[in-house]
Task: inverse folding
């Protein structure tokens, strides 16, 4: 409980605001103080050396003054400079040479223009004449350019003179030194004293003459400095000493600087500590919701990361530039203390720093929140742009139509080749070889990639071939990232669907077959009893008399029921293909005669005239004889039932090169008001015939059986002419007569 | 020449009581003694305890089906078994006959046909086995069919059948060459002695008439088979 309370307080908005202000205010003060320090503390040596006399600042001050004096001695006096004695000879020669070179070049150009008409002149020249010639040229140069050389000399003297003047000014205007410098010719001094001991009597001095070179107080850090810093002529004598009032004044300033630096450092350190604490808290707490888990966002977080980052950099840079400007100006000259916070310069500088800090911190915390949410990269403009381009490329490569991809690949390849070729042409021979290598690598890659891409297609083609052959459970397996992955998936789905449909059909067919078998059995058992008892009853003499007639009807109808059951069963079996066929070579004419013989008595008894034309030995077919005999029996019975009495029935067996035909033609004894195809459907018959005997399946059974034997049965109705045509493929005549065992 | 003087007992096995009852009535009418069983196990029990001369056996029955019961019975006895089943496919028939049944009748059956088959089986089982071998020397015997070329007579299961001379000629020709298929033309040549064969169904009609005389069910002949589209033959196992 206490812990959560504490946490709540820690994350309350007031604390956050306080932390934010703490950081901003601390930063503002620290930065202002720092700027003030930069202006007021000139040398950090105040921290290590409290005594100004011993400081290296004083030593270097002495040193530079000594150098100045030495320089003065070197220049001598104004007459000496004007005489040109102080000019650096080497420098002069160099500059003279430069003028000579220019003159020579000019001369050559002039000579060329002049010499062009007569070419024979240079041919006479020899090495000797060349030497003579150069001497001549030099003399000529001295003559021609004398004025210019004098100018050069004067220019250099003037420059020396200006330098001498400024040096003299500096030396004579300095406040803290007593000095005496002489080289025997000229003397510079601001004191009457010429005695070395007078100078060495001061707290800080520097004496250089023939016998001694001594600086006091000696600073161990820059001993080397004196040996090599300047060359001074051996007859120079330079004495200098720092005057005590100057020293005391300097010491006072030195102490003040120390105080100020010390104070500033403490303030800055404290501020940095506070900044650290506040910053840590802000970083820890920013974006956390009340549950301490979810990251909450502010409006600024919608800014792209890189823009926010750019914003931070802008703030930091502009702040830094303004700060440098501030330091360089004399805006914050006076030393600052915290208690001076009401001073306008302090206040304005602090305010400026605070505003900069607020802006920067605000943006920084936004970045921190993104970092916490792991969306730092994702929300950057760069990332989004790159990812968008990448997505576009991928879209083109992956989801577009195939020809788009191929076109893109070709364009890319051709473009690369063009660029590389252009580079090869423009580049040097050595680089051209490198580009040649790159081109070779690119070509190799293109060939490899093409093979890599096309390979799955081959796999798919092979797979489809396998599936086509009937192996429906074959699965085409290719890389998911391949161009043809979708095609492979589709083919697999297709094969799957086909497999399922096939399995379903097989199952349905089997179920149908089983159903027929079961129903048939369940029908047959009671039918057996009905037939048996009807038969038994018909043998009894029943009272009343009419009962005998009733029994006769039952018996007749039960027989019909039996016939229908058998027919139904048979057609179901034949049509479901659930039968075994015993194919053998059969003479259709023989079969027709045999079938007619089977029904001979009925034919004789009918009032029909059968005109049979069945020439044996021509119409051979491959078929199941028993089934064909059922067909013919059904057809003949059909004729017996439905042919008009006292008409002729034509039965013809014929054959051509490839087919065997059996044709039945008769005149119907009723009006055939049905469609030719309907008659072959199960149970379809002419209405008038419905009440007569038969199952109505005769033609359907015939057709199914013919189909099972590979033939075609066709019914044609032409007015009252009813025609059935069986067409079967003719069997070859090879082998012995089938009659032989 | 044998007549039924003894009362044979027939065991009817079927799980449908009405069918058993109706069959009993038919069989008793014909003078047989009838025993009844309603599943395969009961049938086996009765066979072991009482004299049975013939079985009418259903296939689909509880406890022990007809096929298994037939197999069990055939382990010890060779009494005739006629399977009476609603299973009518060729494969079922072949299966039934293979396991040892002597005949196969499909439901719904013609009662008269069934009785004829019972009679036939009993005759073969009881009398034919005892027939004097000497008489058989010149005879052609194909199962229950006897053709005597000397007397030009034909008997089926011991009963003489009247045939016309042409019919007899055809039957004799076929019986002399059992299992050989004769075409109509060949039969005509051999029996009519080769006078101009007329291409019609004369021979076929003759053969059908023979079948009607010697077969119990001419539609499903046992001896004289029609080879559809080819010719005819006598079947001998």
Result:
């Amino acid at each position: 409980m206490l812990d959560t309370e504490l946490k709540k307080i820690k994350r309350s908005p007031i604390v956050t605001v306080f932390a934010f202000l703490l950081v901003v205010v601390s930063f503002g003060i620290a930065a202002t103080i720092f700027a003030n320090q930069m202006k007021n503390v000139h040398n950090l040596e105040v921290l290590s050396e409290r005594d100004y006399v011993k400081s290296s600042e004083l030593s270097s001050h002495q040193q530079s003054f000594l150098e100045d004096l030495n320089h003065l001695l070197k220049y001598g006096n104004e007459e000496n400079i004007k005489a040109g004695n102080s000019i650096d000879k080497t420098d002069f020669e160099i500059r003279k040479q430069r003028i000579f070179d220019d003159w020579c070049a000019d001369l050559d150009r002039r000579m060329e223009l002049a010499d062009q008409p007569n070419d024979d002149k240079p041919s006479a020249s020899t090495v000797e004449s060349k030497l003579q010639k150069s001497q001549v040229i030099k003399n000529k140069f001295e003559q021609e350019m004398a004025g210019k050389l004098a100018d050069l000399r004067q220019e250099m003297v003037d420059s020396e003179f200006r330098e001498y003047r400024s040096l003299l000014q500096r030396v004579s205007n300095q406040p803290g030194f007593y000095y005496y410098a002489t080289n025997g010719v000229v003397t510079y001094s601001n004191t009457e004293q010429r005695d070395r001991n007078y100078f060495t009597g001061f707290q800080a001095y520097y004496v250089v003459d023939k016998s001694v070179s001594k600086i006091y107080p000696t600073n161990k850090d820059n001993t080397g400095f004196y040996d090599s810093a300047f060359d001074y002529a051996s007859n120079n004598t330079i004495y200098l000493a720092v005057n005590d009032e100057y020293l005391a004044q300097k010491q006072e300033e030195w102490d003040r600087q120390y105080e100020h630096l010390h104070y500033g450092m403490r303030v800055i350190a404290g501020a940095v500590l506070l900044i650290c604490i506040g910053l840590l808290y802000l970083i820890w707490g920013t974006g956390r919701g009340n549950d301490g888990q979810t990251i909450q966002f502010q409006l600024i977080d919608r800014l792209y990361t890189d823009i926010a980052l750019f914003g931070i950099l802008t703030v930091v840079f502009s702040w830094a530039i303004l700060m440098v400007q501030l330091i360089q100006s004399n805006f914050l000259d006076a030393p600052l203390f915290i208690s001076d916070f009401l001073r306008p310069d302090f206040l304005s500088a602090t305010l400026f720093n605070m505003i900069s800090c607020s802006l920067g911190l605000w943006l920084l915390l936004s970045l921190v929140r993104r970092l916490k949410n792991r969306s730092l990269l994702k929300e950057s403009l760069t990332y989004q742009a790159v990812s968008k381009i990448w997505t576009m490329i991928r879209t083109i490569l992956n989801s577009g139509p195939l020809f788009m991809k191929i076109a893109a690949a070709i364009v890319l390849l051709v473009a690369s080749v063009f660029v590389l070729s252009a580079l090869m042409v423009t580049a040097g021979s050595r680089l051209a070889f490198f580009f040649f290598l790159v081109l070779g690598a690119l070509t190799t890659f293109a060939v490899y990639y093409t093979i890599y891409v096309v390979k799955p297609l081959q796999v798919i083609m092979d797979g489809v071939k396998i599936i086509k052959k009937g192996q429906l459970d074959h699965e085409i397996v290719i890389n998911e990232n391949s161009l043809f992955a979708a095609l492979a998936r589709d083919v697999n789905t297709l094969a799957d669907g086909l497999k399922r449909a096939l399995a379903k059909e097989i199952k349905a067919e089997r179920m149908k077959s089983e159903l027929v078998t079961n129903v048939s059995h369940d029908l047959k058992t009671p039918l057996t009893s009905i037939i048996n008892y009807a038969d038994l009853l018909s043998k009894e003499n029943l009272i009343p008399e009419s009962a005998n007639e009733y029994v006769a009807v039952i018996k007749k109808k039960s027989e019909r029921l039996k016939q229908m059951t058998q027919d139904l069963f048979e057609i179901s079996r034949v049509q479901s293909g659930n039968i075994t066929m015993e194919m053998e070579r059969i003479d259709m004419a023989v079969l027709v005669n045999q079938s007619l013989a089977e029904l001979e008595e009925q034919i004789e008894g009918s009032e029909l005239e059968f005109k049979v034309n069945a020439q044996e030995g021509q119409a051979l077919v491959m078929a199941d004889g028993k089934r064909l005999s059922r067909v013919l029996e059904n057809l003949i019975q059909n004729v017996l039932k439905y042919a008009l009495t006292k008409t002729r029935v034509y039965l013809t067996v014929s054959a051509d090169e490839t087919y065997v035909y059996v044709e039945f033609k008769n005149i119907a004894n009723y009006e055939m008001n049905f469609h030719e195809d309907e008659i072959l459907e199960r149970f379809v018959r002419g209405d008038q015939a419905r009440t007569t005997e038969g199952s109505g399946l005769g033609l359907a059974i015939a057709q199914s059986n013919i189909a099972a034997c590979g033939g075609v049965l066709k019914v044609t109705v032409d007015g009252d002419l009813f025609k059935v045509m069986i067409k079967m493929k003719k069997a070859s005549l090879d082998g012995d007569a089938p009659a032989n065992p | 020449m044998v007549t039924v003087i003894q009362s044979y007992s027939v065991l009817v096995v079927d799980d449908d009581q009405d069918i058993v009852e109706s069959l009993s009535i038919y069989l008793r009418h014909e003078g047989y003694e009838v025993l009844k069983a309603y599943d395969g196990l009961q049938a086996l029990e009765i066979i072991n305890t009482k004299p049975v001369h013939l079985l009418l056996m259903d296939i689909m029955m509880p406890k022990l089906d007809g096929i298994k019961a037939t197999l069990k019975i055939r382990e010890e006895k060779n009494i005739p078994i006629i399977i009476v089943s609603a299973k009518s496919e060729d494969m079922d028939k072949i299966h039934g006959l293979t396991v040892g049944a002597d005949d196969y009748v499909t439901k719904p059956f013609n009662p008269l046909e069934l009785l004829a088959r019972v009679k036939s089986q009993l005759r073969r089982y009881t009398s034919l086995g005892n027939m004097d071998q000497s008489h058989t020397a010149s005879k052609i015997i194909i199962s229950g069919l006897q053709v005597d070329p000397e007397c030009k007579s034909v008997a089926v299961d011991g009963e003489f059948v009247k045939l016309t001379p042409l019919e007899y000629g055809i039957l004799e020709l076929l019986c002399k060459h059992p299992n050989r298929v004769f075409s109509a033309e060949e039969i005509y040549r051999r029996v009519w002695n080769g006078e101009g064969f007329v291409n019609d169904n004369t021979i076929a009609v003759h053969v059908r008439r023979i079948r009607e005389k010697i077969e119990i069910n001419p539609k499903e002949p046992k001896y004289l088979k029609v080879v559809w589209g080819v010719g005819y033959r006598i079947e001998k196992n």
The radius of gyration of chain B is 20 Å. Chain B touches chain A through 40 residues (CB under 8 Å). DSSP finds eight helices and eleven strands in chain B.
